[in-house]
Amino acid sequence: MSQVPHPPFDRMENDDMRRLTTMLTITMATTALQAAPPTADDWWTTMGRYQGDHILKDGESGDVIGEFSVEWGVPFQRLNYRYHSTGGDVATTMTGFCHWDETLGKVRFIEVETGPDGLVTSVGELADVDDATLTWNIKSWTEKEMVRSFQMKDVFGSDGVDRSIEMKSGKAMPTSFVWTSVNQFQRAFPVADQLVGTWNFTENGQAKIAKVEWGPGKETLVETTHTVGADGTTTEDSTVTYMYDRVADRVRMHFMGANGASGWATPLVGKVDGTMTMELSWRGRNAMGQRIAALGFRKLDGDTMTLSMSEFKLEGAPVPEGAAREAMTAPKVLTRAKK
Questions:
Q1: What's the pLDDT tens digit per position in 29-53?
Q2: CB 8, CB 134: distance < 8 Å
Q3: Which structural domain range is residue 204 located in?
Q4: One domain, residues 159 and 306
Q5: Residue 330 confidence (pLDDT) above 70
Q6: What are phi and psi of 6, to 5 degrees?
Q7: What's the CATH code of the domain at 273?
Q8: What is the pLDDT of residues 271-301, one digit of tens each?
Q9: 182, 199, 230: which is the final residue of a domain?
């Protein structure tokens, strides 16, 4: 306990789509911290700010003392978290969850840890929310006695959270911590920044543009393709969302066409002669519900990106040769627009 900062709380196609799109919705909805005390209907918008993976440092020495992960066990209902210390004479591990307590009418977390004080159970209640500051009242017990009672304040900033501890009673513990979020999306997909921008290209004689933009917190990418009319007006053609899959520890891509087609792919990033490449194995369904599959390949060389598709299949059978397949497999050369 003396080393622990008490974080407060804490197939593929259908299952992963539900999980990833739900988490994208939650991420987008929790980017702003409400100032009013949370209610049963909106408490998750406040607590969602804790979601993710974090590195914990001692507030005085700056030494890294542990890591913890926070994720939705049940979206909008229960937030799970786990912690483990790094270094130190006695290892500390912790697991807990946070939820809305109907009886108390407050956000509450319960956790169990093993460490220098043995087996300790802690219960915390959210006492106050003031702009970017969350205040918690916490009590900790072993199976024999109360260990301590204290108040914890978390101040959210652009780079993470400053955590301060005010002891009320019992055994003393460190009084300040700093933790910063680990961007797992960028860790798993380090080429993301190279894709951001506006790209011009022509597909079968039709002018198009593709815009690749960061999502909230730079934890997703959204790639939207538009058809450009003769008068300069644009019509959305498709959207590809890049999202981090925590279970598989890799990035997934979800395609949604304006015609109703949709699909998933897992990008495999590599290099050929120093040029970044991306291999994609697409699986999904067309607008009529038929199973479709294809292999994609991207090559990014500075401000030029080449896209190609091959091995198109419909309901498991290769698309026959002809004009339709030639149109689908013709390489596309995209040029990044100048800023």
A1: 444 455 578 899 999 989 988 988 9
A2: yes
A3: 186-336
A4: no
A5: yes
A6: 50, 75
A7: 2.40.128.20
A8: 998 899 999 999 999 999 999 999 999 999 9
A9: 182
The string of DSSP codes covering 244-260 is EETTTTEEEEEEEETTS
pLDDT class of 21 with cuts at 50, 70, 90:
very low
State the Cα–Cα distance between residues 87 and 66, nearest whole angstrom. Answer: 8
How far apart are the C-alpha atoms of 84 and 91, rounded to whole Å? 8
Indicate if 192 and 154 belong to the same structural domain: no
State pLDDT tens for residues 239-268. Answer: 999 999 988 999 999 999 999 999 999 999
Go through the chain and tell me how many residues it has.
339
Would residue 71 count as lying in a domain?
Answer: yes
Q: Distance (Å, rounded) from C-alpha 24 to C-alpha 48?
A: 12
- pLDDT of amino acid 8: 38
14: its two tokens: 């259908």
Number of domains in the chain: 2
- 139, 162, 182 — which closes off a domain? 182
